[in-house]
Amino acid sequence: MKSDTAGTTTGPTAVSTPGRQMEELRADEALHLLGTVALGRLVFTRHALPAVRPVNHLLDAGDIIIRVSDGSTLAALLAAQDGAGVVVAYEADAIDQGAHLGWSVVATGYATAVTAPGEIERYAHLLRPWVEGAASGTIRIRPDLVTGFRLLESST
Q1: Are 129 and 138 in contact (CB under 8 A)?
Q2: 52/147 Cα distance (integer angstroms)
Q3: pLDDT(96) > 70
Q4: Is the pLDDT of residue 97 over 80?
Q5: Residue 129: CB partners within 8 Å, gap ≥ 6?
Q6: Mean pLDDT across the stretch 54-64?
Q7: How far apart are CA 23 and CA 3, in angstroms?
Q8: Distances (CA, A) of 49 to 43, 44, 52, 62, 74
Q9: Closest by CA position to 119, among listed 42, 60, 75
Q10: Rounded to an integer, what distance in angstroms lies between the CA atom of residue 57 and that of residue 55?
Q11: Could you give the count of Cα atoms lying within 13 Å of 152 in the half-sphere of its Cβ?
Q12: Alpha-helix residue ranges (DSSP H) falling in 51-147
């Protein structure tokens, strides 16, 4: 995107796709869809600015579980929390870019460290990081707000 001297932004124009509609999802349906994919994006605050990291996850009893690697930004996030958790957002989607169909879900809630040894071991077997290196911790996100939408072919 480029800015001109008048301060307006120019860039690609939005193209509407005839025959498509957007439908909001119920929270339970959105959370279910989140559990059908393995990759998403964690949104958190780093140095007082928003940061986004792609991570793999699993859904366990409505909680989003993520494992972090040694020395990563996410490990620092866990070390900085004061016990109450850190507010984060988690986004995942499955959208066919050619057909312009699919869905997107955002879950917002508190991230805390998983500390129970049995849970840590269980998640270590269920959730393997996609990058090399030893995992340094496991994060649990308890979603307080779950929103989403589905892009559908229009029936008209």
Answers
A1: no
A2: 18
A3: yes
A4: yes
A5: 56, 67, 68, 69, 135
A6: 94
A7: 33
A8: 10, 8, 10, 28, 14
A9: 60
A10: 6
A11: 10
A12: 73-80, 117-126
**H or E element that contains 34:** helix 27-34
The two tokens of residue 26 are 């119920």
Token output for 8: 């307006």
Residue type at position 38: A
> When comparing pLDDT for 67 and 135, which is higher?
67
pLDDT digits (tens, 9 = 90+) for 103-115: 999 999 999 988 8
Cα 105 to Cα 91: distance, rounded to the nearest angstrom: 6
Angle at 13 between CA 12 and CA 14, to 5 degrees: 120
The phi-psi region of residue 126 (left if phi > 0; otherwise alpha if psi is between -120 and 50; otherwise beta) is alpha
18-48 burial string, b = 16+ CB within 10 Å, else e?
Answer: eeeeeeebeeeebbebbeeeeebebbbeeee
CB 46 within 8 A of CB 73: yes
Distance in angstroms (rounded) separating the CA atoms of residues 126 and 144: 24
Burial of 91 (C-beta count, 10 Å sphere; 0-12/13-18/19+): middle
